[in-house]
Design goal:
Layout (H helix, E strand, L loop, with lengths): L3 H6 L1 H15 L3 E11 L1 H7 L5 E10 L3 E9 H12 L9 H26 L4 E2 L3 E6 H13 L5 E10 L5 E10 L3
Antiparallel strand pairs: 1-6, 2-3, 2-4, 2-5, 3-7, 6-7
């Protein structure tokens, strides 16, 4: 069985996300896996306890096991990504268009991962509709990440970037992958 962390580092899946984003936006984008770290759950608290507002997109992959996927953006990067997806310059976070664009971005990321896992595992993979939450990083950690993370010795933390090739606008985000029950 392929590990999810191997799947997310596979250039084919990143290329597929790029292609899906280009179809959605009609624009050329570049998606890159900037880094991958395995971190202990207690380290997550120190990384994300700055008492800052963050934007979170989360979903669950459901197949022979459950995988919790959480993407975390700071407000500036969420706006940059939304502008890229919507091809609009002046957006403020909280607007329904931004929420919808981030949900659609989550749908593309999670849907692509689910399709890829399904193909290599020869198994049906479902996923929940991505949810978008805007809150303080400490509240997100306490309510969403830590209850799941404490059941794992390590958490996979990825750093991704999405760049609009024409404007070179770049958005960075982090993605947690948390294995759930089998």
């Amino acid at each position: 069985m392929a590990k999810v962390e191997e799947i997310l580092l596979n250039r084919d899946i990143v290329k597929c996300v790029e292609e899906n984003l280009e179809v959605l936006t009609g624009q050329s984008v570049r998606v890159s896996t900037e880094a991958r770290r395995k971190i202990k759950p207690e380290k997550v608290i120190s990384l994300f306890s700055k008492n800052e507002i963050v934007v979170v997109v989360y979903s669950n992959l459901i197949f022979s096991r459950k995988i919790y996927v959480t993407m975390i953006f700071d407000v500036k990067n969420a706006c940059v990504l939304s502008r890229t997806l919507l091809a609009q310059a002046d957006l403020e976070i909280g607007g329904e268009e931004i929420i919808d664009s981030l949900r659609e971005f989550g749908n593309i990321m999670i849907g692509t991962i689910a399709s890829y896992i399904s193909m290599i595992q020869n198994e049906r993979v479902d996923y929940t509709i991505p949810e978008v939450v805007i809150d303080y990083d400490t509240a997100i950690m306490e309510s969403l990440i830590m209850p799941l993370a404490m059941n794992n010795e390590f958490i996979d933390l990825y750093e991704f970037s999405v760049m609009h090739k024409a404007t070179t606008a770049k958005s960075m985000f982090k993605m947690f992958i948390l294995p759930g029950e089998a």
